[in-house]
Specification:
It comes from Flavobacterium sandaracinum. The chain contains four helices and no strands. The chain has 87 residues and is mostly helical.
Length: 87
């Protein structure tokens, strides 16, 4: 969509699509958004955009620091990076 592409350009954002209809390069973030929606967004109704923004920010802190991921050897992302990239 040209309007969307123009808005991205104005904001200095590079679109991350390899070609039309192929979003494989976005698999990691798509997975994160799926988890965020199922663990946060779909569980309650929000009274305002500000409330939703605040809870998303809090969820991101939880996701990175406390949420255990089995594919990261049962560590949070922060713990995993600290453990494996420190050496």
């Amino acid at each position: 969509m040209r309007q969307y592409q123009q808005l991205l350009k104005e904001k200095g954002i590079k679109q991350s699509m390899s070609r039309k209809g192929n979003c494989l390069d976005n698999a990691i973030i798509e997975n994160f958004f799926g988890i965020l929606k199922s663990e946060l967004f779909y569980l309650k109704k929000y009274n305002s955009i500000n409330q939703l923004k605040k809870e998303i920010q809090e969820y991101i802190v939880y996701y990175n620091n406390d949420r255990i991921k089995s594919n990261l050897n049962k560590m949070s992302p922060i713990q995993y990076r600290a453990h494996y990239y420190q050496n």
